[in-house]
Specification:
mainly alpha, about 55% helix, about 290 residues
């Protein structure tokens, strides 16, 4: 009787250990006949997800490392773009979002102004955005001042930014949400920022960078999208900026994520133009897959 109880307890303990071990437990219930199947399942999980876990790690067997894809010549191309951007004299350097807000304002007001300048900048040249932001600041650019301003006046102030009628609506809706939900501040995560009317992924990542000094991802606008496709910095051609962001973040070292938007936007404004790029002036002409060589 005692032997039977002891054996029963042993089997119960084995079953508990099996459940704690995940997939391995199911095969231990029926004894040694299913051990080979257990080994195969655990090994496949280790390969599919993380090396260094499962049977291989326990037995000191290292999993093979997959080689990381990188574009050809990208480091040399990047250094040459840095050289071409050395003077910092593109429109983005003089009138970009980082030049549009009042740096002497209280932090919460400053962050709100950063977000509004990003919303205005969509489909709009830096010069136009900068002028609109200056006019808004002259009227006192705070959450409360925008909520008190009527739509007609707001439209007159921000005109002629692109899609200004839609932006009036989005600015009013977003500002009301900020007042009600965030105490007049802006959200501190990308997930919350993109829920705001008129705020897309590029704006959200730039807001995190500029307003919160946090690198959450690569901000991909039309310039970054165009240039990285021309340089073949993506494994295969991408059609949309968000596709490009995902493709770039897959291989580009994270310590370059903050810099890459500023570099490529200015480069796209001055040299790698959307139409008739100035390839003859580009230092990357000899190693650019899209260069027009004469």
């Amino acid at each position: 009787m005692c032997a039977a109880v002891s054996a029963g307890r042993g089997r119960a303990a084995a079953r508990r250990l099996g459940r704690a071990g995940g997939a391995a437990g199911a095969s231990q219930v029926h004894g040694t006949a299913s051990i080979p199947r257990c080994s195969r399942r655990r090994k496949s999980v280790a390969i599919a997800y993380e090396s260094g876990q499962g049977d291989g790690a326990e037995q000191g067997i290292s999993e093979p490392q997959r080689s990381r894809w990188e574009p050809k010549d990208w480091r040399q191309q990047l250094e040459r773009i840095r050289e071409m951007r050395r003077n910092r004299d593109a429109p983005v350097d003089e009138m970009g979002v980082e030049k549009c807000y009042d740096s002497s304002a209280p932090p919460q007001v400053m962050r709100y102004q950063v977000l509004l300048s990003l919303m205005l900048s969509s489909q709009t040249k830096d010069q136009v955005t900068s002028a609109a932001m200056l006019r808004l600041r002259q009227h006192g650019l705070t959450v409360d001042s925008i909520l008190q301003m009527d739509d007609v006046t707001l439209g007159q102030i921000i005109y002629p930014v692109g899609f200004w009628r839609n932006k009036v609506k989005y600015i009013k809706q977003t500002t009301a949400i900020l007042k009600q939900k965030y105490g007049g501040d802006i959200p501190s995560t990308v997930e919350e920022l993109v829920q705001l009317p008129g705020v897309g992924p590029k704006m959200a990542h730039l807001a995190m960078n500029i307003a919160w000094d946090s690198v959450s991802g690569i901000a991909v606008d039309t310039h970054v999208h165009r240039i990285t496709n021309r340089l073949k910095w993506v494994k295969k051609e991408t059609k949309y900026p968000e596709e490009t962001r995902v493709a770039l973040e897959d291989w580009l070292p994270r310590d370059l994520w903050r810099e890459i938007n500023w570099l490529l936007v200015g480069f796209g404004q001055q040299t790698c133009l959307p139409v008739n790029p100035r390839c003859n002036e580009c230092l990357n002409q000899d190693i650019c897959p899209a260069a027009k060589r004469r």
